[in-house]
Amino acid sequence: LTLTNIALPSDELGLHTPWAPSAPLLPPLPRLRTLTIGMATLLPPGAIAALLIARTAEVRAGEVGLTGGLVSVRLGDTYWHSIWGPRVRLRDVEDAVRDMQSLGQDEREAALERVRRVVRCEKKTERIQGGDNGDERGVLD
Q1: pLDDT at residue number 66
Q2: pLDDT by residue (tens digit) across 99-113?
């Protein structure tokens, strides 16, 4: 599934939409293997973290329960807010996992490992000014 050139229905505090910043971006789609999001604004990193982690009662084989079979999530030129702000980075998604109060320590570590394995954040286009222009094109850690 590829979604490009979109503004997601969210605001940081969740005041103007029913979608909370930590709600999964999509409903569970068991057959979805790859998700690519490009040129997107208003994408809270918590939505990506929540998409990858489904809370389960036990930790199985070092992984928390997984939503579907996602093996790749690519975020190219995705932004927390507008295009003038910072791009979403891998560390932002990792921080969102660390902030999930519902996860136990073992689940949190397994979830962080899954995020590192599945999520790839990239800078593909340059802006004239503002934001994170100093970064090189490519992977954003």
Answers
A1: 45
A2: 988 888 888 999 999
Higher pLDDT, 117 or 55: 117
Phi and psi at 26, nearest 5°, equal -130, 160
Which are the contacts of 6, defined by CB distance < 8 A and separation ≥ 6? 37, 39, 40, 41
Confidence check: pLDDT of 75 > 70? yes
CB 25 within 8 Å of CB 49:
no
Determine the length of the chain: 141
Alpha carbon distances (Å) from 2 to 16, 33, 109, 133, 134? 26, 11, 28, 25, 27
Long-range CB contact pairs, 8-15, < 8 A, 24+: 8/40, 8/41, 8/42, 8/43, 8/47, 9/42, 10/42, 10/43, 10/44, 10/47, 11/42, 12/44, 12/80, 12/81
Instruction: Provide mean pLDDT across the span 31-54.
Output: 89
Q: Are the CB atoms for 93 and 35 separated by under 8 Å?
A: no
Which among 68, 48, 19 has a CA at the least distance from the CA of 112?
48
